[in-house]
Design a protein that fits this description.
single chain; about 325 residues; alpha+beta; Peroxisomal Thiolase, Chain A, domain 1; 4-stranded mixed sheet; 9 helices; binds oxa(dethia)-CoA
């Protein structure tokens, strides 16, 4: 007789229990960036909305940034490290394909009972991870998930390349996701467009490799206009689908927290979504730059910390970037 496998079921739903973030100490102004590229403070502010950003120290690793943010989120959640069932780290700047950043993050958090893996969905990585965390909790694979979005992009950009040097930066944000009796994370709308891989990629050509502190990293290159056009034309549709699937209207929102890609992309999405003026919008890019997978949880943490949005409020989240991968969902804020 064929053996019968015992299935597992978890909580009815999942929710974000807490958030924490880490912005590296060093503030880098547009004027400092312009020492290495042919640009101006005025151009950068006007075209991207960025006034300053943070760079991690040379001896600060992706894992250091991640542990800092995740430690804060874990402490705020009240969940003990040994209760964590999974650690997900969304990043494209951990220097090694293996071992994962997540395995080291779990170890350093004391999450001795956790599975661990990295997510490679670039700027969409946090929203991908949130959907995966919710599915794990609902299926019974984990009771609590630590999800981190973290990047040290300064290791991977050419600081003399004016198409990327002014926009990307370093940082980490993390949430703890746990069980819920009520729906608190809406259905995800996600996808990717592999026909546009070259729009943002780590350059493969050996001749484009550069030395970086003794380690050879490929360099991140971006066709800014192509990504900009795609984001503005497609991401409003994806945002609307996420609202629809969650049964929430733009008017019901307490916050709009899009990936902090470019202030002009955020403004275009606001117009396309006809977002009412009373909904607070994340504009963290102004002082944090574009931190890819980290940008949404960093912005979320700041909006909650400043009281700009209420704890327990309803937010629309959307991440988009290399791949060209995207993911959006509505979520109740911790
Ligand atoms: O997070 C992952 C996803 N990434 C994104 O979503 C980024 C999407 N793209 C963007 O945000 C924008 O494309 C950028 C901010 C990267 C660039 O802004 P843009 O308005 O698309 O600039 P552009 O490439 O169309 O260039 C406009 C002009 C050009 O000059 P001409 O041909 O009009 O004379 C460029 O040569 O600006 C020039 N330019 C610059 N000038 C000063 C390009 N880069 C610079 C620069 N400083 N850094």
């Amino acid at each position: 007789m064929t053996a019968r496998i015992t299935g597992s079921t978890g909580a009815p739903y999942a929710r974000i229990m807490s958030v924490g973030s880490y912005r590296p100490e060093r503030v880098v102004t547009n004027d400092e960036v312009c020492l290495r590229i042919d640009s101006t403070d005025e151009w950068i502010r006007e075209r991207s909305g960025i006034v300053e950003r943070r760079y991690a120290a040379a001896d600060e690793s992706v894992v250091d940034l991640a542990v800092n943010a995740a430690g804060k989120a874990l402490a705020a959640s009240g969940v003990a490290p040994d209760q964590v069932g999974f650690v997900l780290v969304a990043t494209v700047t951990h220097p090694y394909p293996t071992p994962s950043a997540a395995a080291e993050v779990a170890f350093r958090l004391g999450a001795i009972n956790a599975g661990a893996t990295d997510i490679s969905s670039a700027c969409a990585g946090f929203c991908y991870g949130l959907a995966m965390a919710q599915d794990m909790i609902r299926c019974g694979s984990a009771e609590y998930v630590v999800l981190v979005g973290v990047e040290k992009l300064t290791d991977w950009i050419d600081l003399t390349d004016r198409s990327t040097a002014f926009i990307f930066a370093d940082g980490a944000g993390a949430v703890v996701v746990g069980p819920s009796q009520e729906p608190a994370i809406g259905p995800v709308v996600w996808g990717s467009d592999g026909s546009q891989l070259d729009a943002i990629c780590m350059t493969q050509s050996l001749t484009d490799y550069r030395d970086h502190g003794g380690t050879r990293f490929p360099t991140l290159s971006m066709k800014g206009q192509q990504v900009f056009r795609w984001a503005v034309s497609e991401m409003s549709k994806v945002s609307n689908q996420a609202l629809e699937r969650a049964g929430v209207s733009a008017d019901d929102l307490d916050a709009f927290i899009p990936h902090q890609a470019n202030m002009r992309i955020t403004d275009a999405l606001i117009r396309a979504l006809k977002l009412p003026a009373h909904v607070p919008v994340a504009r963290d890019i102004e002082t944090t730059g574009n931190t890819s997978a980290a940008s949404i949880p960093i912005a979320m943490d700041r909006m909650l910390a400043t009281g700009e949005v209420p704890h327990g409020g309803t937010a629309l989240l959307i991440g988009f970037g290399a791949g060209l991968a995207y993911a959006a969902q509505v979520a109740t804020l911790p």
